[in-house]
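anyone seen this seq b4? input:
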Amino acid sequence: MRLQTSAVCARSWQLTGKRADAEWSSESTRETSLCEVVNADFYIVQTGCQWRLLPQNFPPDITVQRYLYAWRDSSAWQTINHVLLMEVREAAIRNLAVGPVLNRPRLPSETP
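predicted toks r here
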């Protein structure tokens, strides 16, 4: 069974993938998906889980920890979080703009 608690959607990964990948672009080969590493990092941050208790469907805990610490030290993690926050805010604004106005308070001039 795959945990979906902190899964980054495809659109969000398109926004953050370049930033996450930039830190490790000098590596010749990569065996671990950076998307899975970011998912594992979000899981750790959201749940407060200990590194050693990271579920088996994520990359090894030492790998996830290594990436998170490198991203934190280079400010890439802050950038990733900021990009995702802006995406969520823009989506909320779009949904608010097109959503119906159901229970808005009436103005005094609108009362029957």
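Residues 1-6 have pLDDT under 50 and may be disordered. DSSP finds four helices and no strands in the chain. kinda curious what u guys think
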